[in-house]
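As a warm-up, study this chain.
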Amino acid sequence: MISAPKKEAFLEGSGLPFDLYDAYGACQDHFLHYHDCLELNYVLSGAGINYIQDRKYLMRPGELYFINSQECHIAVSTEQLRMKVLIFQPSFIWQSNPDGYDYLRPFFDHEKGWDNCVDAGEQRERVLQLLIWMEEEKKRGEEDSPLFIRAYLMELLACVCRERSRQQGDQRWIGHRQAYQRIEPAITYIRQHFSQEITLEQLARMTCMSRTYFCAYFKRATGMNVREYLRLTRINYARLLMTTTDCPVTEICYRCGYNSLSSFNEAFRQLCFTTPTEYRRTLDPCGDNEKS
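Now compare it with the structure written out below.
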């Protein structure tokens, strides 16, 4: 189980720009984080919630989640969740391969209305077998093991690209993209004005929909209701300020759009499972940054 501040230092000092491990258990002690490498989650069993940037996903067995180096994320489970977590540097794929970027499209080509999740579908058994082979080569640790790991990883990504292309023609995903396009003006407004008071009436008018229809489209496109989305946007910004500035927590609270410290603390705790003060302490374990 990972307990991390805003940025995690994966693979530093490792001779191999790749790692693969099991993650399991009822997890409630994570922090939103990001890292310089790419991450792939494969859900084996159980259920949970994956927050990736500004989207919320209900995790199910057989799903793959692609997370790039710019996306903050956190996986939360209230029951037994089992995942394979694969992390690697992009250069591991494209360094000696002029067509390498094609393998990495699931990480970066997040079109409007598309998302980070791909159901393994017909490729499920093949994907799991490739992950197992990568684990075996990692344990073997022979001189030529990186060659085999790279080959298995590229095959896995090729399988996912094929499945993703198939799903893009599915009516379910077409409807998902259409829903996003309908509420895009509201998404843009929230991102630009999250520190101000925002009402459902305002957002619905921007999309020329009634409140009822707007709420339904918004939930379909983002996986969250407006209140949850606004909270995630504000807390992501709060984390950024805590990591990059010395602003007191009280000032950060108001800059993020909260009118009281108690409501800010509650929103922060709901998402990060810790208080803003404790979160900042993880960024500065020596205790030099105790502003509040």
